[in-house]
Amino acid sequence: MSETSYRRRAGLSRRGRLFLLLALALLVVNAVVLFLLLRETDAPVRTLVVPEGWRASQVYAAVDKRLDLPPGTTKAAAAKAHLRLPAEAKGNPEGYLYPATYPIADDTTPGGLLAYMVETANKQFGQDRTAVGARHGRLTAYQMVTIAGIVQAEAETPADMGKVSRVIRNRLALGMPLQMDSTLNYALNRSTLTTTADEARTDSPYNTYRHKGLPPTPIGNPGRHAMSAALNPTPGNWLYFVTVAPGDTRFTDSYAQQELNVREFNENQKKAAKAG
């Protein structure tokens, strides 16, 4: 077939061009009509926002409220939803209720919404990538999510997440207790900046002042940055850190330096209390 004959066959007649223009015009008119109809009948889009670091208990309460259900409904549904969780989780979705904005429809159910969150977590975390990172650190994929949950709770900024992750790794490698306030707060169902000596003796597997190693489950639902930090900790020999003041988190491998930093933190807390 020559180029000339191909162009002739591919071209449109005058009648064909008119028909095409008419069809396009009708499409435009229909689109405008549809847009106007949608504007008249459009209902507000309902969503549920799950912030990074929220605990499962907070997610359950938010779902109950958003779906106008009695308190405790979503928590009960979690046990019957057959969520795609690691065997280590033993049916507990803590750590896998991925932080995101979720659409809410009239037929949304608590179990269906939780399943959507878990599926989103599995996709965002990338099970293959998580498994490789876990093997590299001699940890399971579930333990990586547990580390990410602590990182999410402890790090003040995304820039600090990799360093917090490194502190956790270094302490685990040396057999040191993690001594993380965030895990104790989880045991006590609270969120505070300070921990007393009496509280540090709390008898709970989540009390990493008393028990070495990671807590038995994640302590919250980490986001993408925290998970990335758990898989790729910043190189360093840090063993301690404390946020002395907003925007000022200090990392060190010296216990003496850590004591000085903690002293400064306590002084700042006293000043803030007096000013308040």
Write the topology of this structure:
Elements: H1 3-10, H2 14-41, E1 46-49, H3 56-66, H4 73-78, E2 101-104, H5 110-125, H6 127-136, H7 141-154, H8 158-174, H9 181-188, H10 224-231, E3 240-245, E4 248-252, H11 255-275
Antiparallel strand pairs: 1-2, 3-4
Keywords:
276 residues, 11 helices, globular, disordered N terminus
Structure explained in plain terms:
- Strands 1-2 form a two-stranded antiparallel sheet.
- About 55% of the residues lie in helices and about 5% in strands.
- Residues about 1-40 have low confidence and may be disordered.
- The chain has about 280 residues and is mainly alpha-helical.
- About 30% of the residues are buried.
- β3 (about 240-245) and β4 form a beta hairpin.
- It has eleven helices and four strands; from the N terminus they run ααβααβααααααββα.
- The protein is globular, with a radius of gyration of 27 Å.
